[in-house]
Design a protein that fits this description.
Belongs to the SlyX family. Pfam families: SlyX. This is Protein SlyX homolog. Keywords: Coiled coil. The protein is mainly α. It has 1 helix and no strands. The protein is rod-shaped, with a radius of gyration of 31 Å. 75% of the residues lie in helices and 0% in strands.
């Protein structure tokens, strides 16, 4: 009986060690993905800001508009 318990204990310790390694690997990947998302959000914000800056220049102001033909 003692050997069976020792075997089970050894198996559980092995599983825990493996799970700890897996959790650490997953944590590192999560950190990388979080950094990637943050960079992409920053780049997207830059694009949005540039588009907003360009948008008003595509339209003429009221003073630059030519009057309609019926004037």
């Amino acid at each position: 009986m003692n050997d069976a318990l020792q075997t089970q204990l050894d198996e559980l310790e092995t599983r825990i060690a493996f799970q700890d390694g897996t959790i650490e690997e997953l944590n590192m990947e999560l950190i990388k993905l979080n950094d990637l998302v943050a960079r992409q959000q920053y780049q997207m914000q830059l694009i949005v800001d540039k588009l907003r800056a360009i948008e008003p220049s595509n339209m003429a102001s009221q003073s630059e508009e030519t009057p309609p033909p019926h004037y």
